[in-house]
Amino acid sequence: MFMADQSESQGFTRFTLKRSKISIAFQLFIFACIMLLLYLQLNLWLWLISMLVTAGVGLWFIYQPQVTRFEHLELDQWSLRFSDSAQIHRYQLLKMIDHSLYVVLYFQDKKARPVVILCDQMPRQQWKMLKGRVRLS
Questions:
Q1: What is the DSSP letter of 124?
Q2: With CB atoms 3.0 to 4.6 Å apart as the test, which of 2, 10, 120, 124 could cross-link to 16 if both were Cys?
Q3: Confidence of residue 8 (pLDDT cuts 50, 70, 90)
Q4: Taking the CA of residue 21 as centre, how many other CA atoms within 13 Å lie in the half-sphere pointing to its CB?
């Protein structure tokens, strides 16, 4: 298991992510609100169909590849490892934005989607290290 470590000889910081409980709770809350509003507006059979479609789309989003590990290599170079493969991708960071509860990483490569990191995805010490990096960038 990888832990956050600052290696002076290699000069990089490694962060390991787990699935966010906050994002799952938020998604379930939004799903419940949408289902309540649709229940008030639609017939029962249309509501059931919309519930199945919405649940299917939600499951599709949950099973999208997630970042499981990322490392700051040098200057603006970061490496990302996704849950669906053992391959490590290397990207150049464009900017980091701190939103208190979460941090967003934007990359220069247009194919790379922004990475949202919530505070409960890593131990508190790693979270503080990441927030420090955001302030320095």
A1: H
A2: 2
A3: very low
A4: 2
Comparing CA positions, the residue from 70, 76, 109 lying closest to residue 93 is 76
Q: What is the DSSP letter of 65?
A: -
Q: How many CB atoms lie within 10 A of CB 85?
A: 9
Contact yes or no for 111/103 (Cβ under 8 A): no
pLDDT tier at 5, thresholds 50, 70, 90: very low
Cα–Cα distance, 75 to 19 (Å, whole number):
27
Residue 30's pLDDT band, with cuts at 50, 70 and 90, is: very high
Q: From CA 105, how far away is CA 98, in angstroms rounded?
A: 9
Residues belonging to the chain: 137
What is the pLDDT of the chain when averaged over all its residues? Answer: 87
Q: What sign has the CA pseudo-torsion 43, 44, 46, 52?
A: positive
94: tokens are 């464009």
- The C-alpha angle 48, 58, 27, rounded to 5 degrees, equals 105
